[in-house]
Amino acid sequence: MAVKAPHPPTPSTPSPIKQFSNFTRTGAGLEKTLRLIQALATIVIETSIDNETVTTWSTAKSQLALTRRFFRFFNFLDCFERVYALLGSSSSSSAADRLPATLLELGRWTCLGLYFVLEDCTILHAMNVYPVYWNKPVLVEAYKFWFYALALSIVGALWGLLFDSGSTSASAGKKEQDEKKGGSSKERKVGGSGPLMKRIVVDGCDLLIPGVFLGWIQVSEVVVGMAMVGLHEELNQSEASVEEDIRSLKDHIDELHQKMNAIKSKAVS
């Protein structure tokens, strides 16, 4: 007598509350949530005419900014680790063709790491634990490095779109002859340019923050706050698409398990 293997339960889409709980349970998700609240506080401060409201939200904004600094306190380690990896890869013979992109990435992560280091040096001042007179000039230099890092990131993404993607698609076209493989090559090209386009948008929005702080970009704080809100939505959509891909992959794995169990049950019978 054949015994049918029980079908595994079909995973259901988690509720919005569950998704929000999973999102805020991670450090990155909580930091992005605080970023959204800080952006909304910026908009309220700039659009409100009540002095008491402005004072209250200004305090909330400063506290949120300080809290977010704790989440990125050790980010300089990751930046310098990337620099070390890039220096190691640049010594290989195949790195000669990608020398401009490698140099842009080296400059990007070096500047970003220096930004985090300089910002960390002023955190005790921001906490009113150890006030120092050099807080303002150090923060100015830190924001300069942040601006340089974002600018290099945008230039690197544009370089990848204009040159690296073109060379990759050309070599793929030579290797693949039939129409089906050509279609998959096109999909890979679109998939490869998507992260670069998103990087340009995200870093372009982020560029407003140090640019306004340094006085290099003349826009209002409302524009900065709206850019931060839009950036938060863009990041949420990106993470939602990743979660959707993971769920579809799990569904596919469950289907394979069901087929394997069916084959095993037939073999036993």
Automatic annotation (TrEMBL):
Gene Ontology CC entries for this record: peroxisomal membrane
Regions annotated as coiled coil: 232-266
Principal subcellular localisation of the protein: membrane
UniProt keyword annotation of Acyltransferase present: no
Highest taxon above the source species: Eukaryota
Compartments reported by the entry: Peroxisome membrane
The entry's keywords: Coiled coil, Membrane, Peroxisome, Peroxisome biogenesis
Name of the protein described by the UniProt record: PEX11 domain protein
InterPro entries referenced in this protein's UniProt entry, alphabetically: PEX11
Gene source species: Aspergillus viridinutans
Any one biological process term the GO annotation gives: peroxisome fission
Region (Disordered): 168-191
Family annotation (Pfam families): PEX11
Compositional bias (Basic and acidic residues): 173-190
